[in-house]
């Protein structure tokens, strides 16, 4: 049976919606995987075989450029494949958590994906100075920050976002309440309709926001909307991977007294010296220690 290629645009359980060019026209097909275990992700380019006019079976995943996922002590969850950038949406209010922002940045760094911060609701002027101060910490580390207001200035916001996302495969991540849905609706005016169509095609039985889905912006750009989540576990990252995912640690690595330094309480640690002199913030070093601790708890998936 001839194999075709397509792009995975939504996933729910072991059911996938694939966009493919069939006989010169773009079609969406409902596909499943063989067997019980599935490691297909939204953003994957897959090879599949048709089983009926609009259904198929996924036979293979083409090599990925990147893979973003989060994990807890017991299991890992793929968020998306073949991303080039990750946009972390925060807002002036409600307050965002630095823990989630920092974890998303570490995930991006360890996956080779370029992260940006989007500060939304900048029209809420009372909360703006504090929010700017907080995102300023990440800006100092070299992460670009873009200020927008989806509600108060939709036209300018759309322009900023479109310029940022041109020729990129982007995922938007944010806690609930940050305005991520407003940004998606600005960029993809028929996002609500598309989501309903996906729900129907995957037969989820309800209009759900719990699945990740991909929206094509043009032939070279797409955006993936992920479900809002409050936690971002990184149990799959080893200590060595973690220390290299903190850009401010890099200049100090290899300069510790002991070659196998854990940057915890060892004498002559260059990283701890940098924390002491303020070139690494205490908050970021504490996060590193927390992530190393979590990684050590992992008992396998």
Write the layout of secondary structure elements.
Elements: E1 4-12, E2 15-22, E3 25-33, E4 45-52, E5 55-61, E6 67-71, E7 76-81, E8 85-91, H1 98-111, E9 114-120, H2 128-140, E10 145-147, H3 154-165, E11 169-173, H4 180-187, H5 191-201, E12 213-218, E13 221-225, H6 239-244, H7 270-276, H8 282-297
Parallel strand pairs: 3-5, 8-9, 8-11, 9-10, 11-13
Antiparallel strand pairs: 1-2, 1-4, 2-3, 4-5, 6-7, 12-13
Number of helices: 8
Would you report the number of β strands? 13
Kindly name the structural category. alpha/beta
- Radius of gyration over alpha carbons? 21 Å
| Alpha-carbon distance between the two ends | 34 Å
Mean pLDDT figure: 90
Shape, per Cα inertia axes: globular
Note the main sheet: 6 strands, mixed
| Strand content bin | 25-35%
Low-confidence segments: none
Which sequence of SSEs, written as H and E, runs from N to C?
A: EEEEEEEEHEHEHEHHEEHHH
Question: If strands are numbered along the chain, what order do they take across the biggest sheet?
Answer: 10-9-8-11-13-12
What proportion of the residues is helical, as a percent range? 25-40%
């Amino acid at each position: 049976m001839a194999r075709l290629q397509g792009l995975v645009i939504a996933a729910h359980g072991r059911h996938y919606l694939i966009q493919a060019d069939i006989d010169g026209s773009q079609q969406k097909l409902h596909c499943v995987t063989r067997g019980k275990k599935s490691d297909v992700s939204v953003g994957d380019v897959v090879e599949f075989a048709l089983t009926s006019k609009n259904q198929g079976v996924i036979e293979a995943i083409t090599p990925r450029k990147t893979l973003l996922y989060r994990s807890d002590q017991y299991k890992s969850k793929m968020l998306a494949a073949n991303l080039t950038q990750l946009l972390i949406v925060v807002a002036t209010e409600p307050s965002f958590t630095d823990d989630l922002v920092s974890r998303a940045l570490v995930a991006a760094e360890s996956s080779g994906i370029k992260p940006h911060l989007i500060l939304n609701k900048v029209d809420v002027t009372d909360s703006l100075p504090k929010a700017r101060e907080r995102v300023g910490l990440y800006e100092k580390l070299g992460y670009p920050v873009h200020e927008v207001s989806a509600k108060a200035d939709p036209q300018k916001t759309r322009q900023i976002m479109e310029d940022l996302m041109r020729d990129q495969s982007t995922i938007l991540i944010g806690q609930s309440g940050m305005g991520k849905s407003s940004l998606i609706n600005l960029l993809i005016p028929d996002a609500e309709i598309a989501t309903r169509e996906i729900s129907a095609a995957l037969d989820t039985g309800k209009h759900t926001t719990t699945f990740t889905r991909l929206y094509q912006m043009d032939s070279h750009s797409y955006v993936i909307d992920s479900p809002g989540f409050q936690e971002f576990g990184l149990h799959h990252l080893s200590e060595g991977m973690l220390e290299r995912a903190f850009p401010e640690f890099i200049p100090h690595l290899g300069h510790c007294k002991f070659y196998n330094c854990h940057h915890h309480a060892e004498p002559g640690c260059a990283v701890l010296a940098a924390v002491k002199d303020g070139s690494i913030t205490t908050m970021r070093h504490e996060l590193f220690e927390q992530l190393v601790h979590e990684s050590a708890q992992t008992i396998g998936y």
